[in-house]
Amino acid sequence: MIIGITGGKGGTGKTVFAVNLAVALAKQGKNTAYLDCDVDCPSSSLITGAKLDNKQEVHSFLPRFIEEKCNKCGKCVATCKFNALYQLKDQSPSLMGSLCIGCGACMIACPFGAIEESSKVIGFTYATKKYDIDFYSGELKPSELLTEMVVGAVKRRGLEKNYDVVIVDTAAGAHFRLFVP
What we know:
This protein folds into two domains: 2-57 and 121-169, P-loop containing nucleotide triphosphate hydrolases (Rossmann fold); 60-120, Alpha-Beta Plaits, CATH 3.30.70.20. Helix content is 23%, strand content 29%. It has five helices and eight strands, in the order E-H-E-H-E-H-E-E-H-E-E-H-E. The protein is elongated and about 65 Å long. The protein starts with a strand and ends in a 12-residue tail after the last strand.
């Protein structure tokens, strides 16, 4: 059973409720997991006093340009809908990594194979145990935009094992969906 705890705004007490629900279920003998999917502002570890252990990096695609292959056509720049690429006259494209959402469209658009896959760390996941509950949490790095990728990593990590009950604490205004990217 998966129970999503969500709310329309922050500060309503949903994390306190979700943690208490998980503790109550664990006390009833249920094999319980808690997924803190509010990766912009994770707070379950503060409420429970659980130490954030077993840190794993979450990576996103980042283009790497091969200067020798680039003919400066600008197709990659024109394809990027997030303006993460720019190009000065007679120059190779340049990347503003903080704006890149990792879609890979630039690599597909390049007719010369001048872009290859690289990656950047956009956040972290953690796993720990407290109160007979397996706690999973995520943290988005400051200035990163890919919240859903870190949330997906928390969900994948937390759903690797079989539990009687999984409590999912979402970000304010977010809606939980079972699909795990």
